[in-house]
Amino acid sequence: MMTEILIEATIETFYMVFFGGLFAILVGTPIGIVLYLTQKGGLSENIPGYRILDVLVNVCRSIPYVILMILLIPVTRAVIGTSIGSTAMIFSLAASAAPFFARLVETSLNEVDAGIVEAAKAMGSTNAQIIWKVLLPEALPSLIQAITTTLINLIGYTAMAGALGGGGLGAVAQRYGYYRRQEDLLWGAVIVIIVIVQLIQLVGTSAARSINKK
To answer: Whole-angstrom distance between the N-terminal and C-terminal Cα of the chain?
Structure first.
């Protein structure tokens, strides 16, 4: 019984983290690239545009996940059809993680040696070519670490989502550990979360180091 509950909750957690992370990356990556391009001294410098986007990203990042999840309930109902369950939580998870990941993308791109970018410009490369053939490949190890950090943060978010009807290991900890005082399930959920975090960190760090060596 305990094993079945934990397995089902773990699958739900992976489901929320995977799709929440996927949508966060798909949305956050272009935002991070635009921040890099439009900053002072950027390839397409646009200070007013950068400042507006910078403020929006900071505002979104400043809202705690639990509050954002509550604020997005009407939008989630309109988009998903319900505000309860693992699928419904993916929307708020992505909305919370996307600006965070966008900032990490901007930071990763800024870490690329400016000399490499200047050399590409001198060779007549367009901005699109510099982004796809220079910046992203050079920043890939750092971007993988950014993805790793984002996924680990999402695991923490799913635990909070579970306490508000999102399912997953957080829901198990609340439903069985808190309300029913079943400490075996509570600690089981905690241990599984720790293992998942360690695995994601291990895979992410190994992948980043491997690419960095190449």
So the answer is: 47
